[in-house]
Amino acid sequence: xxxxxxxxxxxxxxxTLAYLILPNIVVMVFSFNKPKGRFNYAWQxxxxxxxxxxxxxxxxCGSLSLSLQIAAWATLGATVLGTMIAFxxxxxxxxxxxxxxxxxxxxxxxxxxVMAASLLTLFLNMGAxxxxxxxxxxxxxxxxxxxxxxxxxxxxxxxPRLEEAARDLYAGPVQTFVRVTxxxxxxxxxxxxxxxxxLSFDDFIITNFNAGSTVTFPMFVWGSAQRGTxxxxxxxxxxxxxxxxxxxxxxxxxxxxxQKNSAKP
Amino acid sequence: xxxLTETPPAAPAELPVRKPLLRRKLVPYWLLLPGIVWLLIxxxxxxxxxxxxxxxxxxxxxxxxxxxxxxxxxDAFQEYYPQFIRSLLYAGTATVLCLxxxxxxxxxxxxxxxxxxxxxxxxxxxxxxTSFLIRTLAWKTILADGGPVxxxxxTLHILDVTSWLGWTEGSRVLxxxxxxxxxxxxxxxxxxxxxxxxxxxxxxxxLHEAAGDLYATPATTFRxxxxxxxxxxxxxxTLLTFIPASGxxxxxxxxxxxxxxxxxxxxxxxxxxxxxxxxxxxxxxILMAIVLAMVTVYIRRAGTEDLV
Lengths: 265, 308
Hints:
By secondary structure, chain A is mainly alpha-helical. Chain A has 12 helices and no strands.
């Protein structure tokens, strides 16, 4: 009983962790299923078919590559624009700073469906053709605030004396920025970029409104929920999960070994 | 070291002053310009267009015209207020559940995980990369009628209680309020855990020791030290869960039935299927107003204004 009381938080935390991971395990297990009908919701028979032929479903891999392209461009756009805004907000005092802070905060404090619907009214009024470009525009728009927040947090916690020191050592403004400021801000920028990529790749609500007849991967999954879910969706989901874990682990190991190296005299 | 003799005579600290004052003053504006213009055109301007759409009348065939028909707001609200109430109820319940479920895990990562910390953090973040739609569909399998979850809940007679409360129906969970809230809680849980973890991690562990030295029980330490210090995380976590949950229509669509439609479902179908743009625009403005009002009151009461 005392053991239970002492470890209550750990047990509760592990239950939550199980709740978070459970669907991923189900997705993984069902990627080896051979379903009877069109829907892959009940276990039938073990099979490797879907893993042998992940692109065997019409249009699925096309939508996947489209989503990856959009996520890559959206990440690039949002990271560049967002980092510039973050530096301006932290490093400079100017008029309209408060207004700009609110403009950055609002997209995050708005239900996605509201933004999605309003953007659609804009595109409809402009007579824009819905598709790749409207999706990309929308994704850059909603990723921007997240990049600004991530980079701002990092730049704000940065010691200004490091830059002063660089200047004292006769580094020019450009040199100071490239050799000192940017490396220190890099983890914040990387976090913002990673978040953008994940948000853009996974976005369904805003894309659903502004995609027209273009089909991104989440839209393909949405459509398949009505028409019948191919097992290959589970294969892609599992593969993404594993790749994400490996990438994060690799980044972790890299930064660990770098820290160890720099700790050496 | 020969460079030492070639150093410029001016003190380095004065270097930036040498630049023309005007150009230096403009630097922040040049940095802001592209991003802010983007937000103005693709975030602020659409709101204006939506506002104008909401007071238009007409039809898709004849075209829409601004007639300042504010009646649309009242009509839309009267027709769909059950969906509004349901959205706020579901989102609120999911937020509370996220807080209850998320806090121990955030605490675990911040103080107890030790060398496992990064592994647990990865496990919290990595599911993001499996599309959330795929994961939500997995809940269909987990909560399926003949599945293990329903079986256990049935054996323990929990479903009898929840059915009596109106959360489930008979011996099924899928297509009931409980399934939708379960999905919402699941989907937005990481948005609660990460801010909680960030603010817990900043707490100095010595404060706990100090509280212990002053004869505070672990419960008192939590109530008087840990929880108050984690308030910024609690506030931003609840906002990051409640706001998206209140506008979500994916969980209600995939895990609920027509009886669990939320306001997001209505906006989506009015915009994309019924093509009644004024009603859809009015609905999304009402949702926005409700959410912003609640967020403002909440932030005031919680006392943390520096969220961004």
